[in-house]
Amino acid sequence: MDLELKDQVAVITGGSVGIGLAVARGLAAEGVHLVLCARNGERVEQEAQDIQSEFGVETLGVQADVTKAEDIDNLVARIEEVFGGADILINNAGTGSNEKIMDASDEKWQYYWDLHVMAGVRLSRGLVPFMRQRGGGVIINNASICAKQPLDYEPIYNVTKAAQMMFSKNLSDEVIGDNIRVNCINPGLIQTPDWVKTAKQLTEGTDQTWEQHLQAVAEKYAPIKRFASAEELAHFFVFLCSPRASYCVGSTYYVDGGWLRVV
Ligand SMILES: NC(=O)c1ccc[n+]([C@@H]2O[C@H](COP(=O)([O-])OP(=O)(O)OC[C@H]3O[C@@H](n4cnc5c(N)ncnc54)[C@H](OP(=O)(O)O)[C@@H]3O)[C@@H](O)[C@H]2O)c1
Predict the structure, then answer these.
(1) Which of 16, 19, 161 to mutate for ligand 1's pocket (most ligand atoms within 8 Å of CB)?
(2) Measured distance CA(43)–CA(48) in Å, rounded
């Protein structure tokens, strides 16, 4: 299937590792030019360069902390300078949390609000005008199954991801008239280096290997009884970016191996 994505320009926050990097590589394989951002500038620039060499698309790696409004202003300025705008925005940067509501500080709540919600709001405000000039665009918000079905150890993550999902729906209504399709993806268990790192920490000095730990997590939560690879999930992102998904508007799609317990 020709996904008709060649020579589009995509911006991916948190594009240097894990899901964001897999989506970047999936889009690059379709001939999409890329802007990747992350806080670790060296890593994101290296990944952008590697993708350029491997796939022959134009790439730009930008150091940016998307919780900071000034970093987003700078990112949008760089995108305009190098590519004259963008066709696709993937709000992917994010991370899990670990707290009790009774103990967590206001600062922690604010950080996750900025990371999971305001980053998408600010980047959409910055990039939608270019999408309008180009005749349309695509915005995908990477939330989580936890937006709908909470995990008890990370209430701030659950709450801010639920807000990200609702932001996605509201933005969709606001911009579909400009031919900009906004959707949300709620992944389940995706095996990224971060999960592996945590599993290694939790199993250090125990009888369990990190692989056994991850398998136990998968068996506890996912009827499919395994994690997905980031590449498996990325296929769905790439499809949703494509004009082939032209009637997919304002929805939330679960890619979770059957984990969601409601229909
Ligand atoms: N993995 C899963 O099982 C899973 C499941 C459901 C949803 N998700 C969601 O999917 C998204 C990606 O997750 P992942 O597992 O791929 O995470 P990851 O491997 O930890 O990668 C996160 C990416 O975001 C960047 N990032 C983090 N904070 C940032 C900030 N303040 N500003 C700019 N960039 C930032 C990181 O780079 P730097 O550290 O250099 O900034 C990195 O590129 C997240 O929103 C997560 O909530 C993941």
Answers:
(1) 19
(2) 9
Task: Given CATH 3.40.50.720, say whether it is the number of domain 9-192+229-255.
Answer: yes
HSE-up of residue 81 (Cα within 13 Å, Cβ side): 8
- Model pTM? 0.98
Check if 115 has its Cβ closer than 6 Å to any atom of ligand 1.
yes
Per-residue tokens: 93: 């940067």
Residue 177 Cα to ligand 1 middle (Å): 30
Name residue 235's amino acid.
H
Domain residue ranges of the chain, discontinuous segments joined by + = 9-192+229-255
pLDDT (tens place) for every residue of the chain, 263 residues total? 999 999 999 999 999 999 999 999 999 999 999 999 999 999 999 999 999 999 999 999 999 999 999 999 999 999 999 999 999 999 999 999 999 999 999 999 999 999 999 999 999 999 999 999 999 999 999 999 999 999 999 999 999 999 999 999 999 999 999 999 999 999 999 999 999 999 999 999 999 999 999 999 999 999 999 999 999 999 999 999 999 999 999 999 999 999 999 99
Using DSSP, state whether 34 is helix, strand or coil.
Answer: strand
- Cβ of 92 less than 6 Å from ligand 1: yes
In which order are the strands placed within the sheet that holds 180-187?
A: 59-63, 33-38, 9-13, 88-91, 137-142, 180-187, 252-255
